Amino acid sequence: YQHNPSWSKEAVARKYGKRSFLNRKDVLSQSTFTRESRLKQHRLLVRYISTILLLVALVEFCVDSFPHRIRGFDDIERKVFTDVTYPYRLSEGIANEIRSSTYFNGLIALRHAADVASHIQEEVTFLSPYVGDTDKPESLAPRARVPSKGLCLLFRLMTLHPTGHELGVILQQRDNPYARCIILMYLRFLCPVTKLWKWFRKHVTDEEQVDIVGNGRKTMSAGAFARKLLTDGQFMGVYFPRLAQAQVADLKANLTELLAQYSNTPLLDSRKRNARRTPRNEERERGRVEKGGTRDE
After folding, report:
1. How many domains does the chain have?
2. Pair (54, 77) in one structural domain
3. Are residues 37 and 176 in the same domain?
4. φ and ψ at 232, to 5 degrees?
């Protein structure tokens, strides 16, 4: 077109095609530019792929180096948190009450399960899910309920998705009974039924006393609380996931067998004797010996 001005663009297009407006020199330069740009794109693509592979290798190294924190879900599976309707196995009403609580909104700084456990040891003094709650059913309880610190910390623990290793470390803290009880509630909500007894069997005979409603009005042992979680479907208006009758029967059979073994241990017999050894009983025993075995009136 440039060498023969008599040709029109339409004539060149009809003879050589629509892309033949350029002379051969321009076509060669364009092809060279296209080849260089493609090489540059290939180099960038190779660089991106190598970077992605390096990141994948780094993540795998981190997973292998810290198994107890990243993939240490020995007994608690992550799939239980994927339920859309009830993300944490709590009813929507209770979850909304907790989210609207001022105390719960102040727990955002707690990033690990160990922080939650230390917070429980410092601030939780009873296990009732609501402040000022009693043993009345939920239908008779007042409508405007304030979630207790224990319930808020339990929900915060659910949002952190702790590993089985972290839960086991907290359950081994003998000086923190309320943390152990709240961890057992967490397990009752989220642990698979087939693994419940594995977690609970070491704690159903715990004799340390915990307060239920506050101010010492009602207390029970931590072991009795653990047994209540296994056999009952609710705790003071907070309902747990339902268990099949066969599963409940198996748990009760395991409880009966374990308690029968525990009641026959010499340690428990010595505790019973020490519990009966009061000053009045010792005086009565002394009177029986002095009177030749007759009952001292």
Report:
1. 3
2. no
3. no
4. -100, 150
Residue 1 falls inside a structural domain: no
The answer to whether residues 169 and 23 belong to one domain is no
Quote the pTM value.
0.59
100 and 116 inside one domain: yes
SS3 content of the chain, % helix, strand, coil (to 5): 60, 5, 35
- Tens-digit pLDDT profile for residues 115-149: 999 999 898 888 888 886 544 444 444 445 788 89
Neighbours of 213 (CB within 10 A): 19
Q: Which residue has the tokens 């952190």?
A: 160
Q: Residue 258: is it exposed, middle or buried by C-beta count within 10 angstroms (0-12/13-18/19+)? A: middle
Write the pLDDT tens digit of every residue in 59-86: 877 765 544 443 333 434 333 333 333 4
